Amino acid sequence: MMLSLLICSSLSFHAYSFQPVIQNKHISIHQETNYAFNLHGWVQGSDGEWEWEEDDPTSAAATLTCTLTPESIDATATPSLPGGSFRPKQSLGQNFLRDGNTVAKIVKAFVKDATETLDKKNGVERDLTSSDLRAVELGPGAGALTDSLVPVFGSNNLQCIEIDPRSVELLGQKHPSLRVRHLDVLQADYPSIANEEGGPLSIIGNLPYYITSQILFALADASHTNAVRSATVTMQWEVGKRIVAPTRCKDYGILSVVFQLYADCKIHFKIPPTVFYPKPKVDSALIGLHFLGPGQLRRRLAGVSPSNLRSVVTATFQQRRKTVRNGLKQLALTVYEGDNERVQKFFESEPLPLPQSVQDAIAAGDEFALAQQLPSDWVKKRPEELTPGQFVEITRLLYGTDGAEVSPLGRKVWRKVKHGT
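RESULT FIELD:
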């Protein structure tokens, strides 16, 4: 699947983007380790694993005390790594947060995102408790965010998903009652976790750059079953810009279409490289995603299958410099089983009347629906000129609806087949 090409990872093997943050001559490296060679602060051991060369000499852990409101969150100490063998691993894309103020801002944004997406009974807010949010942290690493989340939610109302056994052991020592799933985040079964927890999850995480897109697509799939309510996650600044990009700009692409269809998206703030250890060369962003849930998503899709939409979006953006007609030609031939006459008729089709659910949304002033009508010359447009809603309409024109208003949206549409269940 070509979706992963959207991410230009700074963690690739051939082009490291990290530079040392701390130069401390008093930190020793274990002499018995047989390092093959050193490159930009990363060292490769005899087992082939890449680790950051230095230990972080700071030792204080971030602490905070607050109620369940963003305004009351404050961090006064600096997150840190334990000494010794716990160094960031390049293979896991580890860049640990090391600034208490940034940690506090992220936790504040998370609480805000999660509480804003809670269901309101009869339009009236009820008193919130930490258990309502069902907080899940992805890739806690050394626990910079975790150490600040536990006082907010309590270790019984927070759980983590972590692949690094060192982190699992460390978090178990610091927070014995904290639930930590030793698991590759790409294999996480969010619907099952939500079922165990009794409702949709609120996700927070400092995501590895090189798998950001696949984690996000897994969350989009999870929203099909209302397994995920919100996500507050870090990523490369350039990737964050793609998520919120408007049409007719170079940043607009598959990520833009998918997440502007599935969620209300925002960039909370830019994060400089200096707050990470090791320090990347690129800026990062904290993104907030408020997933619509299956009900509102179905109204936007108006009977269109997400799988069919994926085929249309990927086919067009794989040839983003060409017109929609050229980008969809091969897909249309496949759909119409090589019948050139039907393909030609499809490309000459006038836009279909908008479904009633979309018309109702337009009457209510819904911005997404207001931009859903296809122009009459849609085949001459380039993909970056079309809104997410217009991609829905092209898909409906090509595939029809096939009863998708009531059929399952799908557990695995945007994420890779090999990821999760």
